Amino acid sequence: MENKDVIIIGGGPAGLAAAVQLYKLGITNILILEREKHLGGILRQCIHDGFGLQRFCESLSGPEYAQRFIDEVRELNIPYMTEVTVTEVTAGRKVTAISRRGVMEFQAKAVALTMGCRERTRGAISIPGTRPAGVYTAGVAQSYMNLANIMPGQEVVILGSGDIGLIMARRLTLEGAHVKAVFEVQPYPSGLPRNIEQCLNDYEIPLFLSHTVVDVKGHSRLEGVTVAQVDEQYRPIPGTEQEYNCDTLILSVGLIPENELSLGAGLTLDSRTKGAVVDEDYQTSCTGIFAAGNVLQVHDLVDFVSIEAERMALSIQECFLSSQFGNAEIEIVVDASISYSVPQKTTGKKDFTLSLRPKRPGRNCTVFVKQENVTIARKKFAKVLPAEMIQLAIPAERIDPEKKLEITLI
Amino acid sequence: MRREYTCIICPIGCDMTAEIEDNEMVSLVGNNCAKGRVYVQQELTNPIRTIATSVLVKGGELPLASVRLNKPVPKASLFKVMAEAKKVILLAPVRIGQVALQNVAGTGADLVVTKHVDAIH
Ligand SMILES: Cc1cc2nc3c(=O)[nH]c(=O)nc-3n(C[C@H](O)[C@H](O)[C@H](O)COP(=O)(O)OP(=O)(O)OC[C@H]3O[C@@H](n4cnc5c(N)ncnc54)[C@H](O)[C@@H]3O)c2cc1C
Ligand code: SF4
């Protein structure tokens, strides 16, 4: 068994940014383990541009954004292994991985979980009907087209208005497919407004809100779907059904953190983020196990993934320097106006950035962070959307360690 | 005439309302920065977009290399750009920044490679 200061699981943007930052902070006995043949994570298939506007002040494609970090990893000679899958992490930070060469075991002082996320599938949202070929998640369709040069189909219906689905609507259209419509069960779109504009409106692809697929038809190949309007409880309204002939149904119905390893290590998960519960150091319920990027909370912008991973790296260094791994006891709770917050706990000893997502779209709202009647932080937003994560700074000096933090959006 | 726009220049995606007379913008509200104004102006005269796609690679570890336009082109020429891109075949290895096709469809923009693809040994 080999000893490492930090094992980083996953070589996507989060893992790469964490590795580079750790290295620059002088923590060099580290190793990145990546399951795929190449570093870069999901960005390898995100060939559209719009990445890096915050970080590099230019609009890059996904592969270019990833390559900037891969180049840094190579220049610094940071050790990494590809085609290595981590199969187990224990609470004691023993990491087991397999590759074609066999089984490897490492004992790490700290483990950084950066495994990204998975797509919700048809099963996760339970669409009735037959099970023909031609039903894909948006990410799978994206990898077919952008990595393997396979066209998923010609007559397309998209369910869900997540950003990946919107991007795929444009991509399929440019490649000659006919995208008939996008249906979203919520009364508002779940993707970014700029993607609605440049991926749907530009190509006159209609978006129907408060609509869902109620039936799927076809035997070996998809032949059509039935779509209906839904009421406030998301129940299909009888009499509103419409038939659409199509050979392809793309599902863009959300992402969920990749939790296999986290569950194995016995980490406490948050039912709202679906990722691990962490403190302001990005430390999970297990001492020395940290998480950042999409494995922690699903991000809409990779720029924030990189920043989050760098903050995690800094926390790991601080924990190493002080030989103290925080023990967070102050709870952070959100009310019904907010979907979730990260972190979910704090030690109250450090300033930190709170990330959250509003439950519903709103205008001129203020986020209040309170302890009973005392407001310890607030921030005003001209516009909030569930599609956009919002962040605010929390000053530690104002936190009363005896009371929980309560967050609301008014 | 009042018209609504969503700025696509950055992820903030400002909702803007423009007052337009004779295809001229007389006022604009809702833009967080000056780029929003430039965007609406451009939309009124000649909407432009950048797109990304892939081109075929021969002898590479991947069958495709991703490419994108190095500057925006008129919206009306996007499908011409796609048709030209489909004809391109590059020989591996290809590197980020390499020009896959110059002055694509006469637009003055180039298609530039955005992913390294190594040759198969
Ligand atoms: C299909 C899809 C499309 C997206 N499109 C966009 C977009 O257009 N714009 C945008 O800003 N964001 C997009 N996102 C969000 C994007 O995922 C994040 O911006 C960013 O890539 C997240 O980085 P990450 O490092 O957390 O995860 P990832 O990029 O997913 O990287 C995780 C890495 O961990 C590896 N891994 C997982 N489990 C193991 C294991 N057990 N052992 C070893 N390695 C493992 C994976 O192979 C992967 O390389 C998209 C996400 C998906 C799923
Ligand atoms: S107006 Fe400025 S801030 Fe608003 S979306 Fe456009 S570029 Fe971004």
TrEMBL record, chain A:
One Pfam assignment: Pyr_redox_2
MF (Gene Ontology): oxidoreductase activity
InterPro entries: FAD/NAD-bd_sf, FAD/NAD-binding_dom, Metab_Enz_Cyan_OpOx_G3PDH
Coiled coil, from the record: none
Keywords, comma-separated and alphabetical: Oxidoreductase
Domain (FAD/NAD(P)-binding): residue spans on this chain: 4-297
Domain of life: Bacteria
Name this polypeptide is given: FAD-dependent oxidoreductase
Organism: Sphaerochaeta halotolerans
UniProtKB/TrEMBL annotation, chain B:
InterPro entries: CPE0013-like_sf, DUF1667
SUPFAM superfamilies: CPE0013-like, Formate dehydrogenase/DMSO reductase, domains 1-3
Gene3D superfamilies: CPE0013-like
Descriptive protein name: DUF1667 domain-containing protein
Organism: Sphaerochaeta halotolerans
